[in-house]
Write a structure and sequence with these properties.
single chain, 442 residues, alpha+beta, Thrombin, subunit H, Pdz3 Domain, 3 domains, six-stranded antiparallel β-barrel, 7 helices, 24 strands, 17% helix, 35% strand
Length: 442
């Protein structure tokens, strides 16, 4: 979704058009065979035929008979060799293309060769200090269902186009404003290697922004509009988006995306939630993401995935694309769930880096009575507090526990050194234990 702009046709593309011969000479304008080829090592040959009306094909006119002799035999052998080589190239090309479609995950950042490196690239955008009292809040209260027109009217003013000058060119993505004093959330890969950064509002007004903090592993970054730029705005405040709880989504829920695909600022696309908690490997690490079929393209990175209630439920980060034909895979987009954003963004705002979550040390599964404790890891806070396999967790920090996600949500509010209070049901009796969380999750 961030991009470096390119123009021009595909390199080495060849288009050949053949028309069938008619008896007595001439060409049949109705039958067309078109072949499209790309150069090795990923040669692809796709053949399309449009039949003659009536279902019959005109036979080619009979040509003059070739004289037999040494020259004819040699020509035949050469023709056979050429046919064999062409078939072999087609087979290799199609095999490589199929493997590319199945195995290649392309996070649309820049075009290949434009600053895609394994090493971490330093961000030298002018900085803004952390620990200024800012925060991101995710609402557990769902509002009314809105038509698409109202979702766009409410959210589009809070969506910005992000343009970062890098050593490789200009990286373009999307961001969403989450506070009236100008804090903006986007993807880390949009600003990676950035030297200077501007954002453009839906009105077309552009302003320079500062870099607050970012985390490459979670692919999130926070930007800030400085006060001098805010003074140019009416009322000195910016429109901002409301964030909703992604854990309340179910597969099939309608969602929308707003962004700047191919620099088309303010583009709205729609779809549904295709999967929840999808583990996807991105650049050697596993990310747990929302999957959607809402159209995401180059420039959508860092933009909001929005529920039908007008709340941001995710930050768009990636999509599946084919290595050999980027238009051949559609409807496989991914977003970072808002349930994970709150903890990470607030850590970035407070400390400038993400703090590790504490380890509890239990394995649970959902049952009617509550969360059933399957096992307890030795030497952990849970074992020290007396939690046993076979217990049911009724509440954690006073919140009722119904699913694994309920316990994970509570854990995301805690840090190493905090205490966790659990209410357990054991053999018909209720008891309360307190865990001292001294160990971090690996």
């Amino acid at each position: 979704m961030g991009e470096c702009e390119k123009t021009g046709p595909l390199p080495g593309e060849i288009v050949e058009v053949y028309r069938a011969a008619l008896p007595g000479g001439g060409r049949d304008p109705r039958e067309i065979v078109a072949c499209y080829r790309q150069p090795d090592p990923r040669e692809v040959v796709e053949v399309y035929r449009r039949p003659v009306p009536g279902g019959a094909r005109k036979p080619p006119a009979a040509g003059p008979k070739r004289r037999k002799g040494r020259g004819g035999a040699l020509s035949g052998r050469r023709s056979g060799l050429y046919k064999f080589l062409i078939c072999l190239a087609v087979l290799i090309g199609l095999t490589a293309a199929a493997r590319a479609v199945d195995n290649f995950f392309y996070r649309d950042r820049w075009e290949p060769g434009d600053a895609v490196h394994e090493t971490r690239e330093e961000i030298t955008i002018p900085s803004w200090p952390v620990d200024q009292g800012a925060g991101l809040s995710v609402s557990r209260v769902q509002g009314e269902i809105l038509p698409a027109q109202e979702v766009y009217r409410r959210l589009n003013p809070a969506v910005v186009t992000v343009q970062c000058l890098t050593g490789e060119g200009v990286s373009i993505g999307t961001g969403v404003i989450f506070s009236e004093d100008g804090y903006i959330l986007t993807n880390h890969h949009v600003v990676r290697g950035g030297r200077q950064c501007h954002v453009t509002l839906d009105s077309g007004y552009s302003m320079e922004v500062c870099f607050v903090a970012g985390d490459e592993d979670s692919d999130l970054a926070v930007l800030k509009v400085p006060p001098g730029e805010l003074m140019q705005m009416p009322l000195h405040v910016l429109p901002f988006a409301t964030f909703g709880d992604s854990e309340q989504l179910v597969v099939g829920d309608p969602v929308y995306a707003i962004g700047a695909p191919r620099r088309l600022r303010g583009t709205l696309t729609n779809g549904i939630v295709s999967a929840i908690d999808r583990d996807v490997e991105v650049e050697g690490r596993t990310m747990t993401l929302l999957q959607t079929n809402a159209a995401l393209n180059s420039g959508n990175s860092g933009g909001p995935l929005i529920s039908e209630r007008g709340q941001v439920v995710g930050i768009n980060v990636a999509k599946y694309m084919s290595d050999w034909n980027r238009d051949s895979v559609e409807g496989l987009g991914f977003a970072i769930p808002s349930a994970y954003l709150e903890r990470i963004v607030n850590d970035l705002l407070k400390w400038g880096e993400v703090q590790p979550e504490p380890r509890i040390g239990i394995w649970v599964q959902t049952e009617e009575k509550g969360l059933f404790v399957r096992s307890v890891d030795a030497g952990t806070a849970a074992e020290a507090a007396g939690v046993r396999a076979g217990d049911y967790i009724i509440t954690a920090q006073g919140e009722e526990m119904h699913t694994n996600q309920d316990l994970f949500r509570v854990r995301r509010t805690l840090y190493v050194g905090d205490e966790l209070t659990l209410t357990l049901l054991r053999e018909g009796e209720t008891l309360e234990v307190t865990l001292k969380l001294e160990e971090a999750v690996n």
